[in-house]
Write a structure and sequence with these properties.
single chain; 517 residues; alpha/beta; eight-stranded mixed beta sheet; five-stranded mixed beta sheet; 13% strand
Length: 517
């Protein structure tokens, strides 16, 4: 035997790397690739290799371990196939997700008759289930409310930011107006006039850190007036409900059907205010019909407080959006919106319009909350609005979102037999229900939370509809389509379908054939 080759082989048996203190000598004969892939997978699972970490170049790690580059490349490929790492060109191979099968054990003892769940599906996860699910690793994210962050207009934003910085004086870097930068309030007024038919003056606008802060400020102001009981749509946004409850409000559910919120039930109840999403109701996707709009505005004119969350209003694919309630009765409607779904939630930029009698109180609450939003981001957004760049971006993402919505509808029809799809052709999500107690889409005892949990175990995120209900109703899922490609959407729905078929196989199947509401 060639002594030089033997020496190299013996050397490779004991070679190691500073990276993760890997010692190739511990690998079993003939199983080095498996061993290396397992070591990397374990490091990702326990957090040693955090999401976003970059793996060494395959050539570098191979040299350190004194193995072939092909062995390292194969180990990396195995992690890529399971969605844990991804190639990023010159940035190398990057960790993109922890293994979804590695779930921490629940920190509390299981209760009799209650499923033993961990993570987002544990009873009362810290920060709420939506936040916990948002932080959970996955391969495919079908959560509602997630925009296509890859479409963020980086070039337009950078150009606008450079122009803004070039024009700012030293004084402009001081504390701003807590109500918001005048330039942004003026731009918002123009945006709302063109896109939502709302006529307002810049002095009526308060810039806020998204709709969540708007609800918190309104809860504070309304409580000071003696308003304690707020109606919400049922099903409706869990996040909005939590925000109101945190603000000390008693939240009362009002049913939603194909015409929107049940205004007769609202009028018959004790609520003093109502929060609703009339342009594209979350999560059902229905639009508040004309008769109920008139009834709601009559209720508001008689003293009720209407808080209009203009959720998803700009994302319409088959017709123009319906007018905002604020445009019809400005003196009685508090109106809020944001760019979280149009640009990015991380910007934390939105607006709140309130009737004059509450304006000073809201501005004061905003001042003591945070002294106002960061001014630079406000001025950049103002320039994007005024220049037409934001409108161009909206047209671009509308086309992309419509194609992805179509892909999800096709996937649901193929993979979720018996599922009923609800709502108008709008927004960034679809709601599907599996009607009846063991009815056409779901076997007896069907638990949509268990379905969502099983899907997450396979790397796919979705919201169980029950999260957004206050009273019992048909089980279902709320599925977002904006953040993924058509292929990812099809794969994610297929995973959910496989889980559902497994449930049916154990408890009995329902008839096939997806239906549209």
């Amino acid at each position: 035997m060639d002594r030089s080759k033997e020496s190299a082989i013996q050397g490779s048996e004991t070679a190691g790397s500073d990276f993760l203190q890997l010692d190739i000598g511990r690998a079993p004969a003939g199983g080095r690739t498996d061993w290396l892939a397992d070591r990397l997978r374990a490091a990702i699972a326990d957090g040693t290799l955090a999401v976003g970490s970059r793996l060494p170049a395959s050539r570098v790690l191979a040299a350190e371990l004194r193995v072939s580059r092909g062995l390292v490349t194969e180990a990396y490929q195995r992690l890529a196939e399971t969605g844990q790492v991804a190639g990023r060109g010159r940035a190398g191979t990057v960790v993109v997700a922890a293994p979804v099968t590695e779930r921490p054990a629940p920190s509390r003892p299981a209760r009799p008759g209650v499923p033993d769940r961990a993570g987002p599906f544990a009873p009362g996860p810290r920060g709420g289930p939506v936040d916990a699910l948002r932080a959970a690793p996955c391969r495919i994210d079908l959560s509602p409310g997630a925009p296509d962050l890859t479409a963020f207009p980086r070039t337009a934003w950078l150009q606008a930011e450079r122009r803004v910085l070039a024009e700012l004086t030293p004084a402009d870097f001081g504390y701003g107006n807590p109500q918001g930068a005048p330039a942004l309030r003026e731009a918002i007024v123009g945006w709302l006039a063109l896109n939502r038919g709302i006529r307002a003056a810049p002095d009526e606008v308060v810039v806020v850190a998204g709709v969540a802060q708007a609800l918190g400020l309104l809860a504070q102001v309304l409580r000071a007036e003696g308003v304690r009981r707020v109606a919400v749509e049922d099903p409706g946004s869990l996040g909005a409900r939590q925000q109101l409850e945190h603000g000390g409000m008693r939240v009362l559910p009002v049913p939603v059907d194909e015409g929107g919120i049940d205004t007769a039930a609202l009028a018959a109840g004790p609520a003093q205010a109502v929060v609703l999403t009339p342009a594209h109701q979350f999560p059902t996707g229905v639009v508040l019909d004309g008769e109920r709009r008139r009834e709601l505005l009559g209720w508001a004119a008689a003293g009720g407080v209407v808080i209009e969350d203009d959720y998803d209003a700009e994302h319409r694919y088959d017709r123009a959006p319906v007018p905002a309630l604020r445009a019809l009765l400005p003196e009685a409607v508090c109106y809020t919106g944001s760019v979280s779904k149009l640009l990015a939630p991380a910007l934390r930029l939105g607006w709140l319009l309130v009737p004059p009698r509450r304006l000073d109180a809201v501005i004061e609450a905003k001042r003591y909350a945070d002294l106002g939003n960061p001014v630079l981001a406000q001025l950049v957004l103002a320039r994007l609005m005024a220049s037409g760049e934001l409108e161009r971006h909206l047209r671009f993402v509308r086309r992309r979102h419509r194609a992805r919505r179509d892909a999800m509808l096709r996937a649901i029809a193929a993979e979720l037999p018996g599922a009923r799809v609800h709502g108008a052709a709008a927004g960034l999500h679809l709601m599907v229900t599996f009607e009846g107690a063991g009815g056409p889409g779901a076997p007896a005892g069907f638990d949509d939370t268990a379905l969502a949990e099983a899907a997450l175990d396979l790397g796919v995120k979705a919201h169980p509809l029950s999260w957004h209900r206050m009273t019992p109703g048909a089980p279902g899922l709320v599925l977002g389509y904006a953040a993924g490609t058509a292929g990812e959407i099809e794969e994610g729905v297929a995973v959910i379908g496989a889980v559902l078929r497994g449930v049916r196989g154990r408890r009995g199947a329902g008839p096939a054939g997806a239906r549209r509401a």
